[in-house]
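#structure-requests
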Amino acid sequence: MVDVKVKLWLEKDSRFVLGEGRAELLRNIRDTGSLAKAAKKMNMSYSHAWTLVRDISEALGSPVVETERGGKSGGGSRLTKVGKTILEKYEKEMKRI
């Protein structure tokens, strides 16, 4: 038999914004509250994860993640409104295919 495969990605102004890997990274940031933990969960270096976040933000023209530096309470990362919106858009479209 023949298998049908579909790959979804989001673009803005013909520039790649989000595919499954980047969406997984945003999901992990949302779920763990930490870019470092999200990267580790994906066996990815922190610097590579940060590069992906920066690339998404640049493509959209707005930050998708906000971070707090460490300290007594630790610090962390969370999705901005734009980050949440783009992830929701991706997940909604994934359900359609």
